[in-house]
Amino acid sequence: MKAYLLRRLLLIVPTLLGITVACFLLIQFVPGGPVEQMISKVQQAASAKGVAANISAEEIRNIKAYFGFDKPIHIRYFLWLGKVMKLDLGMSYAYQEPVWNLLLKKLPISLFFGVTSVLLSYLVCLPLGMAKARRNGTWFDTITSVVIFSGYVMPGYALGILLIIFLGGGSFLDLFPISGIISDQFESLTLLGKVLDFLHHMVLPLFCYMISEFAFLTMMLKNSLLEEMGKDYMRTAVVKGSTFAQAVRRHAFRNALIPLATRFGSIFSLLFGGDILLERVFDIDGMGLLVFNSMVNRDYNVVMGVILLTSLFAMLGRLVSDLMYVAVDPRIRLD
Known about the structure:
mainly alpha; 15 helices; about 0% strand
């Protein structure tokens, strides 16, 4: 086990290097970067004053030097990598502040949505998936399947728009706020009032965050349980005196968790990345919106910082999946 973990951890380094090299090269060749944007701003400012917007070659060289684009691309990459090794992700061109500061500002709300939606999804899907498997083919299974598949096929942002229309004062009920995470009078509320106000704002976006994952996990558990319930060890357990329900809880349920355990690690990248479309629908200033704005503004340092950390989280998540796989099924050995 220790040798396996060491190998997996060591493999993270070359994998990250490969990902960052590929992304760095692609980003550098995208038109409309910070140099072009700065030149455009200078020209617009000169035009607004009625002055001829002529920029000399020397001024262009100075702008490139300011952003570090006066050096070859491989030199720029190694300079960026050197900063990363010192835990410095550089400065944001658009926000004019360190990338770390931006990430630390936006990350908490995305982490809240990610962690809470995953926990709620597992808390609901485990008992619901078991109930559907035990009542397979009944009216309960049919009705819940219709609801679950409806949630699974509908994108979160589309569901968010519908919820705003029906529950956020769009055309019908006005039960929930439709934007932001707190009210304007938040600071004047008591501690309990602040908590309730925050949770009130979270209901609609949190439901949209969890619906797709919840539907997927529920159906995966149900199908896995149905497969386990048809195996010989279940009949043996019943013959030895266990009721069918007891055999499901004691034996089939744990084996059915194996596919869900492998799925669990994939949430690590989701926790960091946020959801761009949902954050735009509900006007939530999280990681997803930061990534979107950074890509639009060609804020290379922010984009590279997010790619680096998201890739790292994804690889650590896969490692966690393997460990959970072993925890659920002791027959597995990681050597």
